[in-house]
Amino acid sequence: MNTESFISQIVASSVEALYGAVNPAQIQIQKTRKEFEGDYTLVTFPLLKASRKSPEATATEIGEHIVASCEQISSFNVIKGFLNLSIAPAFWLERFAEMAADENFGMAADSGRTVMVEYSSPNTNKPLHLGHIRNNLLGYSVAQILKANGHNVIKVNLVNDRGIHICKSMLAWKLYGNGETPASSGMKGDHLVGKYYVEFDKHYKAQIKELVEGGMSEDEAKKSAPIILQAQEMLRKWEAKDEEVYELWQTMNGWVYDGFDVTYKALGVDFDKVYYESQTYLLGKSLVQDGLNKGVFYRREDGSVWINLEADGLDEKLLLRGDGTSVYMTQDLGTALSRFEENKLDDMIYVVGNEQNYHFQVLKLVLKKLGYEWSDNIYHLSYGMVELPEGKMKSREGTVVDADDLIADMVDTAREMSSELGKLDGCSEEEANAICTMVGLGALKYFILKVDPKKTMLFDPKESIDFNGNTGPFIQYTHARICSVLRKADEQGIDYKSHANSELLAEEAEIIKSLCDFPAVISSAGDNFSPSIIAAYAYDLAKTFNGYYHDHSILREENEEKRRMRLQLAAEVARTIRKAMKLLGIDVPERM
Fold first, then answer.
1. Each residue's pLDDT tens digit in the chain (592 positions)?
2. Nearest 10 degrees: CA dihedral of 326, 329, 331, 332?
């Protein structure tokens, strides 16, 4: 049982003894604000009807009863209608002993729920960029957090491997590539294909300009440029399974997948299953027919199928084109149905940017109207864009921050800063490489994940690698520092594993309280699909411990019991930091 539940039970028992049974919802417990003395606070206003006394008198009466009947509560104070309860040090020592003995502390028991998390969803016409990094890190971390909440989690990727954008890269390679391959160019496959996507745009713009100069309107020129007509023809051939086009498509997509795999591995993210749009885009057609049969959808004169959602505050939505070809919504309806049925899902989470908010609103509503009650269990984890100090990124113009370049730059910056601060002194080359990779990626991941997913964020690489701020490297260094202390204790033959019988300092009690919060933090992060809650907790714990370490000696403490207690406390802080950072997909070094 967590501490808050324990306090709620104690309070409920006293309230019942004093005033008779009350509605559990009237027992409102919260953490005491930092400026007041106490650990937990009872709001007495909902209980005044039962007590028939003033807020202050009610709080005092309950406080006196609790202190007299419960040895775990050492004292209380009343501020207006708020009862602040202080927990006895012995209680925190008991909790600490339980926690230290529980290898899985913080992790919830099996919930019996199966949850699918879809993230990444790249296009196969360009490499992954900074925006994809936020998506991948969010998706992977949310999956880790949901696992820690006891759910069976299936991580999936839906690759957008078909469509006009793919044909643009294919056509440009065919026209201007001279047979270039990843092997002949020395480029990663996704970078090579992305190069031809940019190449297509360059020629397309030149052709539009030429047509406009010849007297055509810009809109007409965009539709009539020879290169766009060729790309559209290529797409038609692909859909007709033209052998030559299909073979080129398979070859170039193969290059991209090889490139993606390298980036995913470097980022430390993976998937249990990969879906391909080329295999799923026809799935929804039977659902559209089903909707027509039920009268949920209607057909227009041109043969296209629509749904009218105006009564729900939305607009009319196309579900199937007049020529019978599917749109994104058709595909997503079919994919959602097959996923829920195949995997017996309880929840489906889509990690997709906030520009798709409307799409997912419609998806859920259409499924609901088709009679699928599980549509309520679809959640769109909508996240804001990542911006740079210079502004927004554009793939077509080749002005994106490439994921591979960014990862390499972060590792280089980590090496530079670690060397300057002397953190690599005495390390072998192999150790230094491992630490710099860990710190560079830790900086990148933490900086992105500490921001609430819904917010647009500004990414500043230099700020992310500061060893003193609210950063990944600061938390990693705290862990390494504790590991160093524990190594020295082992070298000196100090036994710190056996039970320590020592009185707690106020600062030590604060650290234990923070450690006790870990299960509730994991639960909250899972409920809100928010890694930022874990990040904030890890930083606060590291900062609190650093303050304590600065003010109190550990290894040089002469009292054996106190020293043992402090070493045990340090070990538990390191273990909790390790677990918290793992939920963010971040490794922590033992030396630094």
1. 678 888 999 999 999 999 998 899 999 999 999 899 999 999 999 999 999 999 999 999 999 999 999 999 999 999 998 999 999 998 999 999 999 999 999 999 999 999 999 999 999 999 998 889 999 999 999 999 999 999 999 999 999 998 899 999 999 999 999 999 999 999 999 999 999 999 999 999 999 999 999 999 999 999 999 999 999 999 999 989 999 999 999 999 999 999 999 999 999 999 999 999 888 888 888 899 999 999 999 999 999 999 999 999 999 999 998 888 788 899 899 999 999 999 999 999 999 999 999 999 999 999 999 999 999 999 999 999 888 776 554 444 445 788 998 899 899 988 888 888 787 787 888 888 899 999 999 999 999 999 999 999 888 877 888 888 899 999 999 999 999 999 999 999 998 887 777 788 989 999 999 999 999 999 999 999 999 999 999 999 999 999 999 999 999 988 999 999 999 999 999 999 999 999 999 999 998 8
2. 180
Q: H-helix or E-strand containing 304?
A: none
- 114: helix, strand or coil: strand
What is the DSSP secondary-structure string of 534-548?
HHHHHHHHHHHHHHH
* Distances 108 to 27, 92, 148, 533 between C-alpha atoms, Å: 25, 21, 6, 17
Closest CA to 157 of 190, 120, 188: 120
Rounded CA separation 506/442 (Å): 32
3-87 domain in CATH 3.40.50.620? no
Q: What's the CATH code, domain 403-583?
A: 1.10.730.10
CA distance linking residue 287 with residue 292, whole number of Å: 9
Residue 12, Ramachandran bin (φ over 0: left; ψ between -120 and 50: alpha; else beta)? alpha
| Global pTM value | 0.91
Question: What's the 3-state SS for 459-486?
Answer: CCHHHHCCCCCCCHHHHHHHHHHHHHHH
User: CA-CA distance, 217 to 298, in Å (whole number)?
Assistant: 36
Strand (E) or helix (H) holding 231: helix 226-239
Looking at the chain, how many residues does it have?
592
Contact between 308 and 298 under an 8 Å Cβ cutoff? The reply is: yes
Q: Quick one: which of 29, 38, 44 has its CA closest to 76?
A: 38
Where are the domains positioned within the chain? 3-87, 163-256, 285-325, 403-583
What is the DSSP secondary-structure string of 547-560?
Answer: HHHHHS-STT--SH
